[in-house]
Design goal:
The structure is a homodimer of 141-residue chains.
Chain A lengths: L2 H11 L6 H12 L4 E2 H7 L6 H13 L3 E7 L2 E6 L13 E6 L5 E8 L10 E12 L1 H4 L1
Parallel strand pairs in A: 4-6
Antiparallel strand pairs in A: 1-3, 2-3, 4-5
Helix pairs in contact in A: 1-2, 3-4
Bound molecules: manganese (II) ion (2 copies) and zinc ion (ZN) (2 copies).
The structure holds a DNA duplex (30 and 30 nucleotides).
Chain lengths: 141, 141
DNA sequence: ACATAAAGTGCAACAATGTTGCGTTTATCG
DNA sequence: CGATAAACGCAACATTGTTGCACTTTATGT
């Protein structure tokens, strides 16, 4: 697990400081294949850090195109890592997401493309979101 | 505007009581072509009613298939009227929705169908949501 | 019209998410 | 090493949504 190196490079590449908190946060994202909310992170962090710090780091990561919003239901926003090809700024996904009704995890469906919108040109479409729900692969077996 | 009659019938058809608050709420939904949140409703109601009452009415309407969730971003849930053919229970939409980045209104795109999901059968899909964003027809002109 | 039961309402209290301001600490770079 | 900007922690706050409980209103049947 030389994620440590990767994370340092990632932060540095975006002009962000490599602090223990942010390093641990990004390690958490790399260790999970589902999206994480601010409170998920607070719960999984070893030391007890302030919620505000986590919120600000998430915002910063989103602003720099390191994380994207994978889902935002009533219970809050869940983030997931962006791909290496993602632009260095906030952006919408080109892939679909799946929310499990049982375990409430959100998965990125990297290989399911968001369908093209077919809509009256009275509307200017700049973002599209395609979210599936049901029972995930884990809960299904 | 004989919506009054329609509303009475609608409530009665679902075994709900026809109270002034619920009547006014449904009238509000009929008078707008975009979705409304609980706080939108509180603000638009003539008398000052308790938020809790509005929340409970919205839940009841959703449970009976009178309203559906048109969007739920971080700022809350917005509801819109269901079609006449909708089942008498909570259900997911078959149409897309549009969220304006400028006025922040949510519109039902009744004639834009939600694309069929094409996904690994490790996942059991029971719901699909397709949400577009950008600039709406009002803000565009 | 009246009694009754069920549904709806209001108030208080609470939990969770997310924000802002401000003073302090820490990382990075010359 | 010292300066600067970023990051952190704390307190305080706003908003959304929930729950419990007592009270009121609506619908129903006699
Ligand atoms: Mn994703
Ligand atoms: Mn709709
Ligand atoms: Zn699951
Ligand atoms: Zn608009």
């Amino acid at each position: 697990m030389d994620n440590k190196k990767l994370i340092g490079d990632l932060l540095h590449a975006h002009g962000l400081k490599k602090t223990p908190i942010r390093t641990e946060m990004l390690a958490l994202f790399m260790d999970h294949d589902f999206a994480l909310s601010a409170s998920d992170i607070v719960a999984k962090m070893t030391a007890g850090h302030d919620r505000v710090t986590i919120y600000r780091a998430l915002s910063s990561f989103e602003k720099h195109g390191i994380l994207h919003r994978a889902s935002e239901d009533g219970q809050g926003i869940k983030y997931a890592l962006c791909g290496q090809h993602c632009p260095d700024e906030p952006h919408t996904d080109k892939h679909a997401h799946f929310i499990c009704d049982e375990c409430h995890q959100t998965y990125c469906l990297e290989d399911v493309k968001v369908p093209k919108a077919n809509i009256s040109n009275e509307f200017s479409v700049t973002g599209v979101s395609y979210t599936l729900s049901g029972i995930c692969k884990q809960c299904n077996r």
